[in-house]
Write a structure and sequence with these properties.
Elements (H helix, E strand, L loop, with lengths): L2 E2 L15 H6 L11 E2 L10 H4 L2 H13 L7 H16 L9 E5 L6 E3 L4 E5 H6 L3 H16 L2 H21 L4 H36 L6 H13 L23 H12 L10 H15 L3 E2 L7 E3 L2 E4 L4 E4 L4 E5 L4 E5 L4 E8 L7 H5 L13 E5 L2 E9 L4 E9 L2 E9 L4 H11 L3 E2 L2 H6 L3 E7 L6 H5 L8 H8 L13 E6 L1
Parallel strand pairs: 3-5
Antiparallel strand pairs: 1-2, 4-5, 6-18, 7-8, 8-9, 9-17, 10-11, 11-12, 12-16, 13-14, 14-15, 15-16, 18-19
Length: about 500
């Protein structure tokens, strides 16, 4: 998904004291307008939003939809989840609370709740869950945050940290004393948030167990979540320089798994659910999720290996050799194996009367070398290129006019050389209009539920998966299988198909 800014110009800074890569890939030093919308248009609001939400909640709801690809409309899934929520609410500490569920059209694995009872779950999370008990554990966890009023408590803690921060900046003259005070306040906030997560886990497991769901579903899903995160390319960490550290507000997954198992033991012994009962619950859940979109939705653009395609807008390009792409809400990001090169692809509005060479030197990025600015043509489309230099990274910039929009390629290299420049130029020259046949063939990947035939193995079924890499590992994670587990003929499994 690529976004455009309100004014069409995002102001990038080559950060002097931080990680320059963050400025380019994550716009960490960018003043991004608050009302960015997906390039493909505003997502449809949830049906209930117009009449039952306050203006403030509606604004937050619409922001969430814009960030997560809008609403995923599937009445079968919607009904299944609403019935699941009804079961959970009926046995919760506050059965009078009213919840409204929105399924988000995003491949990310996430769920969250607003204090008003708006519940959100992504289709990526629904696809990863292996039965209704796992999904119930996640939704009950989010209900736990609402029941315990964690959002209000969190806001008070953040206000306290902000107060300490202002005192440190405005009053404290001793730098070491100020640093210690600020560090202490952050540690207290992190500890408070960790307590919230564990408390929400405990509340969620209790609600799920009382509603008749397997209380060990929480531990199974957290394990699947951890295993799924291990499938991401190693260099993907370079895309997010602000990786969690010991001050992270969320406890690590292993801690939560251990705690979740301990909580579940209060309601049932570990082997209380028979394999036959587990299989029956899984088969029923698989029937509900059969055909769900998996991965990116082509309406927002999608990645296939090194190639990015946007059939709705009608263009495609291929990243340089060795790059891994990530289609985020703000831009298409890429990092080369080893982390020495990176790219960002996004879109802006540039007035028709402004040349692209003028745009490159209009101040949206610092340290442009005027001698490197030149006009180019990319597969018939007018463009311009230039070089900028930061403290630690060198940048090659391209702007290409395609229809009424201008697309930007921002390439970063720790050491720009003729070879890196050539690779960047070759990648930009793959930017082209898609043919009608390509657009028609650009279909989303989907989950398909199939029966295991005699002789089927993990490797055999994984070979049918339409995934770019590590098909067997992805098959195991999707189906809750450990290494060495064998498939049972006649049982059902998930595979990913075009």
């Amino acid at each position: 998904m690529v976004k455009r800014g309100r004014s069409g110009i995002a102001s990038y800074r080559l950060c002097r004291a931080g990680v320059v890569l963050a400025a380019i890939l994550l716009a960490a030093c960018t003043s991004t307008p608050p009302d960015n919308v997906p390039l493909a248009g505003n997502p449809a609001p949830a049906k209930q939003a117009d009449t039952t939400m306050s203006p403030a909640v509606l604004r937050e709801h619409q922001r969430i939809l814009a960030t997560y690809g809008g609403v995923y409309n599937d009445q079968r899934l919607q009904t299944m989840i609403e019935q699941l929520v009804e079961r959970l609410v009926a046995v919760s500490e506050k059965p009078d609370l009213h919840y409204k569920v929105t399924i988000l059209n995003s491949q990310s694995i996430n769920a969250f709740a607003l204090p008003t009872g708006q519940l959100y779950v992504t289709r990526g999370l629904i696809a990863l869950a292996d039965d209704d008990s796992e999904l119930a554990s996640v939704i009950a966890h989010e209900m736990g945050h609402v029941i315990a009023r964690h959002a209000e408590l969190r806001e008070k803690e953040e206000q306290q940290v902000d107060l300490v921060n202002r005192v440190v900046n405005d009053v404290v003259s001793d730098p070491e004393a100020g640093a210690l005070a600020l560090a202490k306040s952050k540690l207290e906030l992190a500890s408070f948030s960790q307590k919230q997560e564990f408390e929400a886990d405990a509340i969620g497991i209790r609600i799920a167990a009382h509603a008749g769901y397997d209380p060990y579903g929480a531990a199974r899903f957290l394990t699947a979540l951890e295993r799924n995160s291990e499938l991401k390319p190693e260099q993907s960490n370079a895309i997010n320089p602000a990786a969690p550290d010991f001050l992270s507000s969320h406890p690590s997954t292993p801690e939560r798994v251990t705690q979740a198992i301990a909580e579940a033991r209060q309601y049932k012994p570990p082997a209380s659910v028979s394999p036959a009962e587990r299989e029956q619950a899984r088969d029923a859940y698989y029937g509900d999720i059969d055909g769900i979109v998996y991965g990116e939705d082509p309406s927002e653009g999608f990645v296939r290996g090194r190639r990015f395609l946007h059939p709705k807008l009608g263009f495609t390009f291929t990243a340089p050799e060795g790059f891994a792409l990530d289609n985020t809400a703000q831009a298409v990001l890429g990092v080369k194996r080893g982390g020495g090169e990176a790219l960002r692809f996004d879109v802006v509005r540039v007035p028709a009367e402004q040349t692209l060479a003028q745009y490159l030197t209009s101040g949206w990025i610092e340290n442009i070398d005027p001698a490197t600015v030149e006009d180019v043509t990319v597969n018939g489309f007018p463009g311009a290129t230039a070089v900028a230099k930061g403290d630690q990274w060198d940048f090659r910039l391209y702007a290409i006019r395609f229809g009424s929009d201008v697309y930007r390629f921002i390439f970063a290299a720790k050491h720009r050389t003729p070879d890196t420049d050539r690779a960047f130029r070759e990648a930009v020259n793959t930017f082209r209009r898609m043919s009608l046949a390509e657009i028609e063939q650009a279909k989303p990947l989907r989950l398909k539920i199939v029966k295991v035939a005699p002789g089927d193995t993990v490797e055999k079924l994984a070979a049918r998966m339409a995934v770019a890499d590590r098909a067997a590992d992805r098959f195991r994670v999707l189906n809750g299988l450990e290494a060495g587990d064998r498939l049972k003929p006649g049982s059902e499994v998930k595979i990913v198909v075009e």
